[in-house]
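Researcher: Structure prediction, please.
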Amino acid sequence: MCEIGKEIKLCTCAPSLMKTIVHHKNSRKSKNKRRNDFTWTLEKCLGHSNSTMDGIGYMPYDALSEDLTKERMLTDLNSRNCFDIDYEPNEGDNLKIYTPENQIRKHMSFIFQNGEWVADSYLAFMYDMEKINYGTVNFE
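Model: Predicted structure follows.
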């Protein structure tokens, strides 16, 4: 479990699958294990979509865990570079943080606007997005 007070680091390492041992194909142990990490995706907004897709978008949460809250993420994002890569945010960039796959998938969303990160999200299916990077959320 994460410790309160540690810095949030957005690592570009691929989310790790739990270490598995190859077993007989009918064994319960051979079933795919799901990721146990908080993950993130960084996208660039390309503008309004010309698509006619309809669907339901899920609203972002204010907290994903006791240590991963909207307020803490905004403080960290706006005070230092949380990414492990050389990244300079651009107007309209969208950062989403997701719960581990072994839970009901919830997310938080942040958009870079007017020189700072704000808690906001784009409406699903209304905008074309391009993935910039992704990875896991670590606490250091």
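Model: Helices lie at 70-79.
Researcher: Thanks, that helps.
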